[in-house]
Target: EGF-like domain-containing protein
Amino acid sequence: MRYLILLALARAQCPDRCNQKGLCGKDGLCECFTGYTGLACQHRSCVSSTAWSDVPSATDQAHAPLECSNRGYCNRQTGYCVCDPLFEGFACEKFRCPTSGADRWAFDEFGEKTECSGHGLCTSMREAARSFDGYQLNRSAHRSGDYGVPYDLWDADHIRGCICDPGYEGYACDLVTCDKGDDRRTVGGTDEVAHLYCRCASPCNGTLTMFLGGEETYPLLKPTDTATELQTRLGLLRALYGNGYVQFPEPIQARSIPAGPLCSPTGTLTSITFLRDSGDIPPLWVDAAELESPSKEVYMETNQTLSCSGANGGSFVLVYDGRTTHKLDHDATASEVQHALHSLPTLNEGDVRVETLHSAGSGLCGGDSLVIAFTTPLGNQPPLEIISSLLKNGAPGGSINIQHTTGTRERLECNGAGFCDKAGNITINFEDTAPAPTNGTCACDEGFEWDPDYGSCGRPQFNTSAWTGLQRCPGYVTKDTALDPVDVLNLRYVYIADASNSTADVILAAKRKAGANISSLSVPGGMYTNGPLEPPEECGDCPQQRHLWNLTNSTAGGVALDLQWREIYYVDREIKGLRVAQLKNTTAQHEAGLWIDYKEKVNQSRVFYDSDSILLYNRSRTIEGIALNLIPGERGLYYADPKGDAPGEIHYIDLEPSIAHNGPRLVHKTQETNLTRTITQQGVKLINPHSVALDLVNRKLYWTDAGQRNYSDADGKVWRSNLDGTDAVCVLDRNLWDPTGLVLDLRNYSMIVLDEKLHDHGAVIKANMGYEAEIRAKAEMNGIKRNIYDWYRNQTWLQEIASTYDASSHGGDKYEKVKRPYGIVHDVVNDMIFWTDAGTGHVVRSDVHGMHGAETPKAYMQQGVPLGIALDNGLGPAPRTFVLENGEPIQECWGHGYCGGPETNHSCICDEGWYGNCNVSSCPKGPAWFDQADGPRSAHRLAECSNAGTCDHATGLCRCGIGFEGGACERLSCPVGPNGDTCSGHGECLTLRQLAQDASYNGEPTPIAYGSGLSENSTAWDADFIQHCKCYEPGYGNNSWYNLSAWTGYDCSKRACPTGDNPFVSGRQFERQYVECKATGGSLQLTFRGATTQPIAYDASSIEVKRALEALHTIGSVGVEGDVFCVPPCATCSGPNTCASDSDAHKACDVYGYPLNVGNFSIEFTSELGDVPPLRVDSSKLLEGTVKVGEAVSGSKADVVCSHRGTCDELTGDCECFAAYTSSDANNSFGLREDCGVMLSSGWVGKK
Model:
């Protein structure tokens, strides 16, 4: 009686009366109000949203709504989701935008870490698709001003990323951009040109705003402003102004047609040419929303011209913004091309205008040229791509060409000649002489430096006016330490042009005094070398001075070296012109090997001289000094000609047409420019110019003018002009008598001048280069704060640093007077100078301070009449046999490529995956987690490190952000449990594609195709990139009567509790299935929920069948009825184990001679509740077998956690049963399920 009362009370009342957070429904179950959950509505529920990962439910369908988006747990006390670190939002439904790396965070005013490192805007995929800033968001916009596309995939509002501010980049906006510019080692290319069109009917008021690189012009432009004012406003933008302290001169040029205001009633087209910035410039766009007019039309116009040649059949398509037009015939007309472009989803009617430029009336490949004008607000559209399958007379042939205004010069970080330190943590050890880079700073490669016109590494290091060209590729490293540069200095030589042709008794005496056994010595006129300079002790008496080739008496003059091509240019007065010859001293030094063998190699053959060519013929017998400009693309030669009694001249020769080196080198008259008229028209008198020198840093030409050369007047001068002779000024005219040689020390902004002065009493003069006043004014104008005067080392404007030298070791006096100094060079390696003295026959060496320096002037070698001099500083390519002291060989191009040689201006040809000078590695690419969509269902294009990590360009490895993994950071990591293990160590991390293959319904495997087609409209782009924890489910084991606790939760950190039938509901039944089987032998196997039994003999008993099924981890217990499994039936037994009608069915009779129940077994599932899936049979090994499986009784018992009569402790996996309930057998009786599925009987107390 007491039991019945308790049962009635329990059925009449819900647990804790639903805590007043719900209504008590039938069967004693609470129906909770919104925001509450649990059997007694005792918990708060959390918001559900699109799941980041779940088991796909159908082909290419996943991401059903789940609580906390399946990437967080619900705090049942507060109702708020506790999200994984990568996620945020009420339902953990959004990516948390990244910030700086673990050791460098950005904080807001409240001490919180800021999104995007404080240098960007956190936005969703949907917002990014609809936005445009011309910097990072560059999808198309229409003339109507509608930007972007309506992206609507599942992740549109959930995946978020950073849109960085100008000057920052990286997925977390924690990297500072470096300047991009043209690679100075390449030649050619065009500047980009953008066009602004503005038609504004009167009255026209308001303002225009133009944007570039994420910045806008300020103050705003008025329609009455001119192109000059537009040019000024654009020039103030950071993208064109420079990196903080130096303004790039004339970065753009703007011109309007017709001239006048930017806007006019009939329309004005303004062209904007980017002079400094190279390559494909980011979109320059216009916003005319604030322009007020009765009728207006404002857009950026980009013209592209199509032309066709050599085709009379076939077809082609155009590609714009990643979209391809429909197929066009080879003879398509302007209207057909326009229609095809307007059919693209990213272009509206009116965004493109196609007109015929040159009409032959037969379409594109029939002779028409088509002009495609894009007229959208965004301007400078990228070039169309063309995919053609043209035919010529039925065979493949012909081509379609496109002309465009996009810049074609390179747009490379650090000009392709340096390493950009974007984060302030360079992992490459650069030379000690390089400045310590900070973030956003270029560490330039050897031989390159900052240039105001071209960018951070846009200028070769012109240390001296006698720059000998680009000689080698950068990045010499050892194989074992590929990131540690090795200093390489080759053997060094001076070259001297000697005008003598006599026996040199003085030289002979000096040689004998030094111990040489020489009976005679002739010093014929010609070209000499002295080298190697400063040989090691081991060299002993290896030859120093060597005669290379003869020149006719007194025909020598100036000398200059082009060491990129290993050539020497020199004056030959016999031909009244110039010659150029090949040098082979690299062969000598490469083959020499050890120093001990050097002298033998040198003496074996004339390895120094190959052949020469006449460069300039029959011009003048009085040519003196020459200078080379060896910058790629503008190679040229300057020479000074005193002309004897006539006024002197200065000439320029364009050497670019002669660079092929495979034909005659004779200069055509069109290559030579006489600069004399340009110079003299400025009031400058060219009286007696002697030498020329180039300041390629500031692009200036210097020359000395000896005046009347009467040795009585100090009328000598040093002049400076632009390289074309304009803007000529005198930079030195004090205390100079008859200046001859000139060299510029460009590192110290000083020049050293040779002055014959009084007869047989010359001097060496050092002075500033005449820039001091200009530099001071420019510094004040631009607010330069650093001390620019550290660049100067000389203490006075004019200083005589040598008038005598020590010639005692070469047959002269201790204080030999400088007599007729002629040519001078600067040894930048040792900060020394060498000059020739035609009066004494000596080549003199000194440091740059002369008699005031550490090494006073001394005679270095004895010649006859030395004039021109050139220096090979040993900075050419390393010998192939070059090894370090420890024997390690070295590699060029940082060990990741090879040098292209002089043909490529010593650019590195990099191995795959490396770029720059092969010191920058690319990282793997994967689908970008965040980018700007280009279609409603098209996004996630390939990006380096999948835009979820930072590339370490020194190693080529991605450093993935929190929550991402994979070589390209392409996979969303599985969650990490509280114990620090992936999936808490209780599950398997699978991609959605793998998870779909493991999908099941009601426990039955049902593989699903997910990610089957990654087309433009695919919703399953994430098939291989989002991962999910599939938690372990041990199932039944150790003869248990209930399913062992499985792991559950998005991170598999929680325990699943036992399930059972709700005891309040009666009349529910276990599932019962039947197996009808007939066979004469063999075996079969049964499968339930993916688990398969061992082979079961055809004549197995019910006990054997039961044992086989209960051995599966998917079944706890079953009841099996039947005698023998698949034996044929027998109607009448004639005796024990004997069938009267069929001897093969003898097993259908028992030992007593009675028929058995064979071939019809009944299997009842007593542990698996509900409507379970049917057994599956493999009867392939039965003999003469037939098997049929069917459902006799559909399971109707509930399969709910803790039978809805207790709460689940997710830490232990145990049910905490309500009072009066305990473990059941799922059939309203006590059992071992631990499921709270039965009410305690009166007088009996269970465990739970």
Remarks:
- The two ends are 23 Å apart (CA to CA).
- The chain has a mean pLDDT of 81.
- Residues 2-12 form the longest helix (11 residues).
